[in-house]
Structures are given as C-alpha cells and as structure tokens.
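Most newcomers find our protein records easier to grasp once they have seen one. Each record describes a single protein and holds just a pair of labelled lines. A learned vocabulary of local backbone shapes supplies the integers on the structure line. Nothing more is needed to start thinking about how sequence determines fold. The record below serves as our worked example for the rest of this section.
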Amino acid sequence: MKRGKGLKFVGDSRVPINNRKPNIPKDYSEYPGKTELFYPDFLLKEWMVGAVFLVGFLCLVVVEPPPLERVADPTDTAYIPLPDWYFLFLYQLLKYSFASGPFNIIGAFIIPGLAVTALLLAPFLDRSPKRRPIDRPIATGFMLLAVAGIFYLTWEAAAHHDWKASKEQGMIRDVVELDKEDPAYAILEANTCLSCHGENLEGSVTGPKLVGTELSEEEIMDIAVNGRGSMPSGIFTGTDEELQQIAEYIKSIEE
C-alpha cells in the first residue's frame, strides 16, 4: 500500500474498537459486601424494619391511649381550641396583630404560601453541587431561618397557653339526660345560660355545673338575678314566673 500526500483513512463501523467501553454499570457481584439485590434482599429488610416500628407503635397506643376530650359543645363559647403540636407555630402566628383580625389572610395564606414557594424554588435558587452546609450559604441560611422561626413560634404558643384551663374545659363529664322539650330549657337557652353552664348543664370553664346542685330554689333565683362570683347581675331578663320555672327545673335534675 502506497503512503503519501492525499492518502485518506476511512473508518468502518463494522470493525470493533477494542478499547471502547460501553456505558454499562458493573454487575453487583463485583462489589461483594457493598451491594445487594433490591428484591428480595433490600426490600425484605425494609419490610422488617417497618414491621418492628408498627408493632412498637401499636404497643405504645395500647399502653398509653390517646387523650380524649368531651364531646364538642357548640354552645360553649369559652372553649379555646388548641391544634396539635406540629401546627402550634401557625396557631401562634395567627395571634399577632399583623396576621390576625382584618389581616388574617396574611397569616393564613400569604406567609405560609411564601414559605412553600421558597421551598419549591430552593433547587433553583441554589444549584451548587457542594454538599457541605458552609459551602451553601443560601440554602443553609433559609433552613436555619425556617427552623428558628418554627421553634420560636411553637415555644411561644406552648408557654402562653393556659394548660390547666384547657384540661378543665376538655374534661369528660357524665352527661345527664335532660328534658329539652321542657319550656324551662328554652328559657335557659334564651337567657344565654347554656353558653356558660353547658348544653347539658354539666358546667364549663366559665360556669359551674347545675346538675345535682345543692342550692335551693330561692338561691338559684337570687343568683340568676343578682349574680355571684364571676357571674354578673342582670343576666336573667325573664319574668318572675319564668324565673320560678327554671329554678324548679334545675332542682329536678339529678346526677
């Protein structure tokens, strides 16, 4: 074969190149002790860990039942609801003047919406391939700010909540069947007595129970008109006949 100027080399795709390595990962068997099959080896381990966690969780539920409160009473206007601990920071946020009242939409939608949007944009705001937190100041700063804000708001909500009153208002009490068709019950409802003493007169944070009271009919009538303790005077605005009716009705209720 003659070599010289103007000689051209033509490649042939049918001729394999020995040093070309296809982009195929090595078989897992080439890494003994460092890898395993997803099914069934890895998946079986995951199922075992999940089963142990589930059994442990069920044991905790049996040993320590979740705390329950009494049935919700729509007439109890003094009841203060409290969300679960993981929502306490949002609960506290809605207490501030800039996020409550006429600005409630700011605390309920705008601020949480901005936080969720920042989370969604995090991969686009910080595209650094580095993994050390100190080398990613934007992502690390946002994370620390979010954690500090959630921790502070949760702490504030728990520290300023009246846990004693909360336990009292949620306490399960024996409910007595009342004759709610009795005209005296309608008189009690019309004079807003149920808002403090409960729908079944079992009592609440703002008013004592009237079921099985040791007060006499005269004392009940006097308190309804003149008040006592935290109950102001002038609550009852009915007639003397209606006053006598509710006194007899309350005394007729037994625990």
